[in-house]
Design goal:
The chain is mainly α and about 190 residues long. Helices cover about 70% and strands about 0% of the residues. The chain is elongated, with a radius of gyration of 20 Å.
């Protein structure tokens, strides 16, 4: 069934049609929420769920001026903004809530084909550094960087979702990338000492 048919059925109250729409977009919204709400995993889960709840409540008002994905990204982005504003007013202690795999349970069958423990450790360290730097990035930049560099959306799509001009998207993306580059240069200089 085409997306436009699913939307019309959803507007008429067809829960199964709306469930299919959710299945079509859940991975993208989940990814967006977790990247934008980096360092706040419980908020990311809430944003993910609230996005679809809000979409279900407001599907009748969807006017087809943009595609459904853009509309859902906009809902998720707005929910992220609300949480960032709320978090700014609260004192926060950052606790990383990450699932960690027990590397002792990994069995190496072909040592030449798999990274050695040192490589795994470096990769893990790099991923943690990226996640930390992303979580420290100002929310304006983090949203744009996530939509453009992680989700792979165009500048036009990102501008539409965030209700910004294309130059504003490009500016925030540029500044966000500079912030991350400077952050990593600083960290690597400290490790070299």
């Amino acid at each position: 069934m085409k997306e436009s048919e699913l939307i019309e059925k959803s507007k008429a109250g067809d829960v199964e049609a709306f469930s299919q729409l959710i299945r079509n977009y859940e991975n993208k919204i989940f990814s967006l929420a977790h990247h934008v709400c980096a360092g706040m995993p419980s908020d990311a889960e809430d944003v993910y769920q609230e996005t679809f709840l809000s979409a279900f409540k407001n599907i009748k008002g969807f006017k087809n001026r943009s595609n459904l994905g853009t509309w859902l990204y906009r809902i998720a982005a707005n929910l992220c903004w609300v949480r960032f504003r709320k978090k700014k007013r609260e004192p926060v202690v950052s606790i990383l809530d990450r699932n960690r795999t027990n590397e002792d349970e990994i069995q190496w069958e072909f040592k030449d084909w798999f990274p050695n423990p040192e490589e795994i450790s470096r990769k893990k360290e790099l991923l943690e550094a990226v996640a930390k730097a992303l979580s420290e990035l100002p929310s304006d930049y983090r949203l744009v960087l996530t939509l453009r560099d992680i989700e792979g959306l165009s500048a036009e799509e990102t501008a539409k979702i965030l209700k910004l001009s294309i130059p504003a998207v490009k500016s925030r993306l540029h500044r966000g990338r500079i912030y991350l580059r400077e952050r990593f240069e600083e960290e690597f200089k400290e490790k070299a000492k």
